[in-house]
Amino acid sequence: MSQVQTPPGVTITCAVEAPHLAILTPDALQFLATLHRYFEPTRRSLLQRRQLEQARLDAGGLPNFHSETKWVRENLAWQAAGPAPGLRDRRVEITGPVDRKMVINALNSGAATFMADFEDSHAPTWLNNLDGQINMRDAECIKMGFGPYFYLPKMEHYLEARLWNDIFKVAQDYIHLPRGTIRATCLIETIPAAFQMDEFIFELKEHSSGLNCGRWDYIFSFIKKMRHNPQFVLPDRSDVTMTVPFMDAYVRLLIKTCHSRGVAAMGGMSAQIPIKDNPKANEAAMNKVKADKLREVKAGHDGTWVAHPALVKVALDIFNENMVGPNQYHVRRSEVQVTALDLLNTNVPGKITEHGIRENVSAALQYCANWITGVGCVPIANLMEDAATAEIARLQIWQWVRHGCMTDAHKKITAEWIDQILEEETAQAKKTTAKGLDPAKVDIAKRYLSSQAYAPVPDDFLTSALMTSLDDMAAPNRPKFTNLITDGAVT
Fold it and tell me: Angle 176-182-184 (CA atoms, 0-180°, nearest 5)?
């Protein structure tokens, strides 16, 4: 372990390995401390604003477009900055965790962009965080002619976008980068954000590079924000597709908004992964990806996300065949008129089934158990799942119990029944989980999910609730530090 030189007021509480000294330099720590001290009061104020808005929704209020920013939405004259180097053509982006193997495979995948995910597919242990930063350093984006480009997740208010814009300005000034070098794409993955798309782009100004349909977290947010309103109960997770009314409205509004402001409208994630031992099932999975990507490009998206290198060519072929030029900014969708009622339309065909309940319990259980071991991206039922899937599963279980929902077989969903299913799925998980997964971690996940079924109010985020169970020094996917660019794909 090595000694870190820290600036005044900064303390390192975990052991530091020698390679990490290149990340935790005195200058870097001073930079972080400066940003924290300057912006922390605003951050806390904005989090408090979220709580006040949730209280309004819990009392029966509904999300809506903001009257004070009507002028931003209706003024068609303003435009965002043009695409930054490397961001004009984003037809296929691959995203995943920041462990060495994933970064190498992503950089060699043929995708236009790799979005290194320090959020939903990342378990933020001390070692995972620092190893990930080493991997980002080694990619050397600025030296390759690009800039620091970010995705901004989970925002709920345009003032949060304003905070990020202020952070970017101060950060660029501090390290002597021209303003506008940093770019950010906002993930529209919360229901409040869907009503503020123009505002997000406007607030980021010269730092905006578009919006993305963060579909899975959007469903999670939809349930969480409208949690006490029985009109917003959704059927089985598998029935909530991108073509149901509230999801379709959100996609159409996002594309129209982005293209009217001259920025990218990015499609969502395809989580399928190759099924090596079942050609028929693999073909069906790839056909689902093709259909999803065809829907996106026909709707007017400029690019899309995949979770596995094998899907890059599948998605790329669809976009190459159906998109002339580097993007579709010219597809203005002026005929689209989306109202607040459209964004809240839960006329979703489907039903609640015992199979759907068990799928939710199993997915949430497996994900939580893996996450607290330091793995944030988990293959479950031939899909590469991150925290968003577990969050939908957890919130649906809570919602169905809370509102006394019935299955299609006329069985009432109770916390006691969820406990019974948890016992059965826990026993199954201990038999079939990947080698090395501690059964004690599965038990922690089971107890947590049981507590959520009984809770009068669900936790905001399972990752926050489980932080005390996360092993800070875990890094189960840690290989040696090979060269990122020249070593080729890792299998």
Answer: 160
